[in-house]
Amino acid sequence: MRPWTGSWRWIMLVLLAWGTLLFYIGGHLVRDSEHPERSSRELSKILAKLERLKQQNEDLRRMAETLRLPDGQTDGGPGAMGKLRNLEEQLIKAKEKINSYRSPGKDQEELRRKVENGVRELWYFVRSELKKLTLVETGALQKHVDTLLQDLGHQQRSIMSDLYHLSQADGAGDWREKEAKELSDLVQNRITYLQNPQDCSKARKLLCNINKGCGYGCQLHHVVYCFMIAYGTQRTLILESQNWRYATGGWETVFKPVSDTCTDRTGASTGHWSGTLKIHFIFLFVVLRLNMGFFILCFLAS
C-alpha cells in the first residue's frame, strides 16, 4: 500500500496546483469584468504593440532584400565573389581601425586646452587694445602701436610654443618624423627608378632645357618643375644644360647628374608637349608656374 500512498500524494499536489491556477485566472476574469474600460485599454495597447512589431518585421524584411545580392551575382563567378571578399576585407580593416583608436593622453588634452585658452585671451587682448586706439592722442599713437605689436609678439610666441609641445605630445612627434621619412624614401626611390630605367632606348623621356631667361634661383625652380612633371608623367628626365650661363660645361660639372645610366635623347617618336602624352620623347616648354591640379592631371593622363 505504500507505493499507492506516494502516488496519491502527487495526485493531490497536482489537483491543488490546478485549483490554485483556476482560482487565479478566475479572479482576473472577475476583476476584468468589473473594469471593462481598463481591459479595453490594455487590449488596445497589446494590439498596437503587435502592429508595431509587424511593421518592424516588414522593415527588416525589406532591408534584407536590398542587402541581398541579385540573382545574377550570387553565382556570377569569381568576379562577384571577389568584389564581395574585397568589401568584407574593407569592413574588417575599418573595424580594426575603430577598435585600435587610442584616446588622447592627458598631456595632449591639457596642451590643447592651453592653446585654446591662449587664442581666446589673444582675441580679448586685441579687442581691448583696438578700442583704446580711439582714445589715444595723435602724438602718442605710434608709441601705443609699437607697444601693442610687442605685446602681440609675446602672445604669438607663447601660443606657438604650446602648439609645438602639443605636436610632440604622446609620441606624435616621433610618428610624424617616421611618416615624413617613409614618404621621403618613397619619393627618392621612385625618382631613382624613373631616372635609371633598365633600357634607356625604350624609356619614355621628357627633355627640359635649363636655359630659361631668368636668374639662377629661377632656373633651379624650373628644374624642380621639370622633375615634378617627369615624376607625374612617369618619364625619365633628360636635362639639357650645355652652354648654361652659370656653368658652360653643363649641369654635371657642378652638380650630380640627374641620371646615372640614361642621358640618351633618342626616342621612337618625338614632339613638343601637347594634349597627348603618348609621344615617346617630349620636349617640355618653359614652365612659368605649376599648380597641383596640373600635376595631378599629368599623373592621371599617364
Written overview of the protein:
The protein is mostly helical. Among the domains are: 107-171, Helix Hairpins, CATH 1.10.287.1060; 188-301, no CATH class. It contains 9 helices and 4 strands, in the order αααααααβαβββα. The protein has helices at 2-34, 36-67, 71-74, 78-99, 106-133, 141-168, 172-195, 216-233, 292-301; strands at 205-209, 236-240, 270-272, 281-283. A 4-stranded parallel sheet has the order 2-1-4-3, with helices on one face. Strand 1 (205-209), helix 8 and strand 2 form a beta-alpha-beta unit. Helix 5 (106-133) packs antiparallel against helix 6 and helix 8 (216-233) runs parallel beside helix 9.
Structural class: mainly alpha
Order of helices and strands: HHHHHHHEHEEEH
The best one-word shape is: flat
Portion of residues in beta strands equals 5-15%
Can you give the helix content as a percent range?
Answer: 55-70%
Mean pLDDT: 76
**Rg value:** 40 Å
Number of strands: 4
Largest sheet: 4 strands, parallel
The number of distinct helices, counting runs of at least 4 residues, comes to 9
Organism: Cyprinus carpio (Common carp)
Family: Belongs to the glycosyltransferase 23 family.
Keywords: Glycosyltransferase, Membrane, Transferase, Transmembrane, Transmembrane helix
GO molecular function, one term: alpha-(1->6)-fucosyltransferase activity
